[in-house]
Amino acid sequence: MSARDRETAEALVRLAASLDGAVLGLGTAAVAVASWVKYLAVSGQLRLVASAATASIADARSLLSGDGAEPRIAAVRGYVRAHDKFFRAPFSGEAGVVTKHTQMCLFTEWRGIFGWTFDLHALLFRSWKEQIVTSFRSVPFVLVSTELGNPTGVVHINVDKADQPLPLTTVFHKLIPLETTPYTLFQTIIGNGYPIALLDEEKILPIGKKITAIGLCQAKDAESVEITSCPEIPFFLSELTKDEMQAQLASRARILFWGSIVLGTLSVCLVGHAIYRGWTRIKLRREARHARQMFEEAEDAIHRDDSSDDDEIGDGQLCVVCLRKRRRAAFIPCGHLVCCSECALTIERTPHPLCPMCRQDIRYMMRVYDS
Predict the structure, then answer these.
(1) Using CA atoms, how far apart are residues 80 and 97, in angstroms rounded to an integer?
(2) Nearest C-alpha neighbor of 287 from the set 370, 362, 369, 368
(3) So what's the pLDDT on residue 224?
(4) In degrees rounded to 5, what are phi and psi of residue 144?
(5) Strand (E) or helix (H) holding 328
(6) How wide is the angle at C-alpha 153 spanned by C-alphas 150 and 156, nearest 5°?
(7) pLDDT band at 342 (very low <50, low <70, confident <90, very high)
(8) How far is CA 220 from CA 42, 71, 152, 273, in A?
(9) Using CA atoms, how far apart are residues 137 and 122, in angstroms rounded to an integer?
(10) What are φ and ψ of residue 104, in 5° steps?
(11) What single DSSP character describes residue 21?
(12) Which of 59-73, 141-155, 271-285 has the lowest mean pLDDT?
């Protein structure tokens, strides 16, 4: 691990352990709440997918509710076929109904622990690092029941307002190295990342591909229906079947549910531990303050007692620090009675008071009276 990695890890550990772990507990609670919110969203998506009506392409009209004016969530599976015309991919020449051409600038960068990026370039010039140029084109297309031959029915697909990812196939992929420029030197100085290559990709939705369309189904004309994307569902066009979509969402919902439960329990334990430690510390400070006040009030009497019996002290009753005065102060919690009042006060006022006998931490001291 590099020095920069080590310093970052130490800073994160110190931040997480601050306030007896309260910061870590609150952070864990925030993650648990976010996981629970995502679980509720995924559960809602799962219910919508499960409630979607299914039918074959030939029986697609049966998916409409009533007169067909009201959209209904439905799922159909079929083969992609162009309605009137199709695209030819410029580089590969393959036929498709949707084309997506992407050019992305790739940067070399320093990555810290967990793959996180810690450099000025990532913080100040993130928009420059993510230079992506995308062109998207589509033509009207339909789903049919058979890959070849005359179909028994069609379902029109409208991708104009679809935000969900499409099941595109990569047909062209090329990495173009970039030449160094004066700007590259400037990027290297202010940060650890600089452009090294341009990734040129071309993806299409090919004709004849079997996919599932799930979304809002409504009548397009007297003989056919149209499916548009539903914003509440994470799928629109997918290679997965409806059952596979439900299984994927159910698995994600279980992970989010148990993750939120575990993180929530952990956050309660951490925050509760921090509260307990804080309350214990406050209680000990109050006890120490009270004992110190009582000790200081009796300090004059202790000095008089010490000065009056200097000649009558036995060897086993001398202070182990100054070896001149009688032992009058006991340290708590160890209970050792080994110091006179002045030496006990001197030890108690040090940054880290320790018992001179057992070297245990001293919380406060107590005046001991002879019977």
Answers:
(1) 8
(2) 362
(3) 80
(4) -125, 165
(5) none
(6) 115
(7) confident
(8) 30, 11, 17, 62
(9) 32
(10) -125, 130
(11) G
(12) 59-73
CA trace torsion 113, 115, 116, 120 (10° rounding) = 100
Q: Residues 237, 97: contact at Cβ < 8 Å?
A: no
Residue 336 has pLDDT above 80, yes or no: yes
C-alpha closest to that of 227 among 51, 47, 84, 57: 57
Distance CA 186, CA 144 (A): 55
Helix (H, G, I), strand (E, B) or coil at 338: strand
Tens-place pLDDT, residues 282-328: 888 887 777 777 666 655 555 555 555 555 677 778 888 888 888 88
In sequence order, the 6+-apart residues with CB closer than 8 A to the CB of 292 are 348, 364, 365
Select from 290, 259, 268, 237 the least CA-distant residue to 98. 237
Of the candidates 168, 145, 165, the one whose C-alpha atom is nearest the C-alpha of residue 155 is 145
Distance between CA atoms of residues 26 and 19, nearest Å? 11
**Stretch 153-181: mean pLDDT:** 85
Per-residue model confidence (pLDDT) at position 41? 95
117 closest CA partner among 5, 200, 208, 236: 5
Q: What is the CA radius of gyration of the chain?
A: 37
Distance of CA 20 to the CA centre of its chain: 22
Cα–Cα dist 341/319, whole Å: 9
